[in-house]
């Protein structure tokens, strides 16, 4: 038997393609003339143990070419051979370059098999493997197969197999944030959305979900929690929105409407959905995030979603309203940027007075803005040397801030100033000069006279969505280096004239490192009390009206 298999293997590695492996599986594993007898089972037994050799020689084959063959194999004969298949694929965990095939088989196994050892072995592999990129590759393949699996053509998975699947996802997401990003990139949002709306979830909801320890609610809560924490940069937010983040959020919120659960920090699932939206709301000033969020709204926000918001508690509804307000405000601001005299074109001799200018960044360095190809061409001799240096940084993998996004930040700050009738042209010009020196600004508002609601969800909303932070928390923020804390303290102690609002503009280098965010410079701008909306008790709602809430 072994000689027979050896003879059918091509000697030339290049001829060992995905198409050949697909042919081998269909001809020798799915052959209808092989009955389910002891002899036939032994024959398939030998084939299964030869699969590692197939993978060792043909790992360069594209997984999509094998996906249909594996699915047919499991659908047709999986119930008879899964105990053996489970052991074979579990042994393959020692090989690294076959992550896609391992996860493909293990994923399908979860839908048919109740073997708990597979899940435990997989967890052990993740813990012992320091290279999370390999695991992330497997998670992407897992998401792909969940999405492609046709539940209508196969037997409905058992409750225990679904529990195993959700527990593995929960474990992966808790192990590393990069796994969640990999899951998103591989279509994981669509996969989870399908689980939220398809027959498997209906099976799991046969009994009421009464705690957050249930695999479905646990996985959803972990995803939402990681979304809320990892969406701290425009690139991650753009990728998540492109992968279908808003679709998942809408589905999760709908699930919350029927099955409310309690999560960590006293927040239920609805609060977690709101925090994800709050994280996105902070980043809407970036054009790419704004564009993809508006596109996702068009596709996934339905009348059912709007009705659910009306019936939900105020936290989720208020955050969603703030997102809409921010979008409308930013649309107006970006329209103002098109007005002549805005000074965005980096060609100093630019005389373009067209009101419908569409600014573009330099395609190489993305650090300068031009209103037209003509200005870019005229400014090239002056910009060439700096462009080549900056291009090396971009190619080296370092994120350079989008000048158009920084200009939007400038307009947002200016908008705050105009609302409160303060002239800060000198400092704003200084800020605009710094925008081309690889720095990113963060605007922090402090309402020292307004007492925050004791509700944990409301406080998190203020911190995450509106950037309204408590004075002591601003001083003790770990993202501020100790060397700068005295400077921040001086600014704080200097405003003793009962000004209700203080704007702090902190310049952070780009890209933002994880953990500590060193402050390059921080300026504090006291803003006087608005003429309208003052109350005797110190609370002034009228001061916030019309202000974009970031």
From TrEMBL:
- InterPro entries under this entry? Znf_MYND
Biased region (Acidic residues) positions are 533-544
Residues annotated as region Disordered? 528-550
MYND-type domain mapped to chain residues: 350-387
A molecular-function term among this protein's GO annotations: zinc ion binding
Q: Which residues form a coiled coil?
A: none
Q: What is this protein called?
A: MYND-type domain-containing protein
Annotated source species = Paramarasmius palmivorus
């Amino acid at each position: 038997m072994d000689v027979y298999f050896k003879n059918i293997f091509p000697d030339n590695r290049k001829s060992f393609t995905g198409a050949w492996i697909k042919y081998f599986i269909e001809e020798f594993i799915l052959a209808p003339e092989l009955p389910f007898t002891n002899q036939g089972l032994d024959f398939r037994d030998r084939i299964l143990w030869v699969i590692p050799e197939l993978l060792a020689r043909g790992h360069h084959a594209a997984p999509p070419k094998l996906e249909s063959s594996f699915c047919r194999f499991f659908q047709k004969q999986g119930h008879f051979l899964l105990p053996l298949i489970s052991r074979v694929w579990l042994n393959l965990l020692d090989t690294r370059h076959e992550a896609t095939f391992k996860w493909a088989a293990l994923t399908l196994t979860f839908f048919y098999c109740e073997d708990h050892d597979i899940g435990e072995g997989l967890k052990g592999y993740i813990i012992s493997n320091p290279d999370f990129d390999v695991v992330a590759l497997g998670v992407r393949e897992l998401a792909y197969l969940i999405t492609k699996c046709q539940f209508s053509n196969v037997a409905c998975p058992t409750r225990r197999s679904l529990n195993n699947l959700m527990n593995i996802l929960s474990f992966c997401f808790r192990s590393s944030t990069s796994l969640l990003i990999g899951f998103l990139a591989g279509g994981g949002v669509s996969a989870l959305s399908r689980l939220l709306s398809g027959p498997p979830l209906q099976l799991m909801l046969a009994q009421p979900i009464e705690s957050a320890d249930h695999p479905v609610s646990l996985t959803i809560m972990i995803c939402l929690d990681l979304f809320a924490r990892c969406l701290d940069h425009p690139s991650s937010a753009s990728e998540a929105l492109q992968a279908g983040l808003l679709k998942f959020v809408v589905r999760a919120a709908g699930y919350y409407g029927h099955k409310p659960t309690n999560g960590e920090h006293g927040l239920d699932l609805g609060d977690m959905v709101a925090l994800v939206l709050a994280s996105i709301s902070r980043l809407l000033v970036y054009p790419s995030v704004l564009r993809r969020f508006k596109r996702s709204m068009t596709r996934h926000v339905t009348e059912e979603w709007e009705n659910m918001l009306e019936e939900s508690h105020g936290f989720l509804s208020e955050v969603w309203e703030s997102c809409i307000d921010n979008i409308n405000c930013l649309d107006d601001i970006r329209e103002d940027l098109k007005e002549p005299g805005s000074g965005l074109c980096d060609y100093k001799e630019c005389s373009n007075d067209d009101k419908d200018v569409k600014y573009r960044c330099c395609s190489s360095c993305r650090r300068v803005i031009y209103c037209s190809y003509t200005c870019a061409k005229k400014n090239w001799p002056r910009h060439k040397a700096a462009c080549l240096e900056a291009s090396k940084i971009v190619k080296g993998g370092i994120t350079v801030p989008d000048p158009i996004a920084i200009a939007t930040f400038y307009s947002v700050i200016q908008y705050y100033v105009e609302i409160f009738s303060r002239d800060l042209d000198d400092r704003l010009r200084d800020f605009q000069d710094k925008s081309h020196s690889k720095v990113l600004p963060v605007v922090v508002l402090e309402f020292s006279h307004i007492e925050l609601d004791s509700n944990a969800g409301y406080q998190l909303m203020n911190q995450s969505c509106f950037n309204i932070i408590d004075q002591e928390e601003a001083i003790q923020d770990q993202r501020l280096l100790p060397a700068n804390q005295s400077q921040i303290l001086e600014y704080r102690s200097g405003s003793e004239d009962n000004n209700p609002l203080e704007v702090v503009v902190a310049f952070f280098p780009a890209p933002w490192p994880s953990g500590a965010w060193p402050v390059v410079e921080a300026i504090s701008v006291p803003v006087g009390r608005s003429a309208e909306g003052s109350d005797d008790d110190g609370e002034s709602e009228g001061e916030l009206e019309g202000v974009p809430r970031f």
